[in-house]
Design a protein that fits this description.
With 108 residues, the protein is α+β, with helices and mostly antiparallel strands. It is built from two helices and nine strands. The strands form two sheets. The protein has a six-stranded mixed beta sheet.
Length: 108
């Protein structure tokens, strides 16, 4: 399961409103090969369910993970930062044994 902070929830709701996504859309979170630490995070909005998708809901935000990504992301917290060091979604992943300096990739 992925949990969502209040700041991430607010930003997700803003994006969905700005992009005019209806209630059929959800947040798709995935792990892909790449990045300086070997694996990178991917986040987008989707409205098509795929075979093997795992769905979770936290604070009213519907989140979808494919089964491979679920194994890497179980217990992860999705946050949003709008501070001076950069703006964007952040993943606090307890399964990551190493992350790169930018925080966009990790290894287990």
């Amino acid at each position: 399961m992925i949990t969502v902070t209040d700041k991430a929830k607010t930003r997700i709701e803003e994006i969905m409103k700005d992009e005019q996504y209806d209630g059929n859309y959800f947040v798709r979170v995935a792990v892909e090969s790449g990045g300086c630490s070997g694996l990178s995070y991917k986040l987008n909005f989707d409205n098509e369910e795929k075979k093997g998708d795992q769905f979770f809901e936290d604070k009213g935000v519907k989140i979808c993970l494919d089964i491979k990504s679920f194994l890497y992301l179980a217990g992860t917290e999705l946050d949003y930062s709008d501070g001076l060091n950069g703006k964007g979604f952040e993943f606090h992943n307890p399964n990551a044994s190493r992350t790169c300096a930018c925080g966009e990739s990790f290894s287990v």
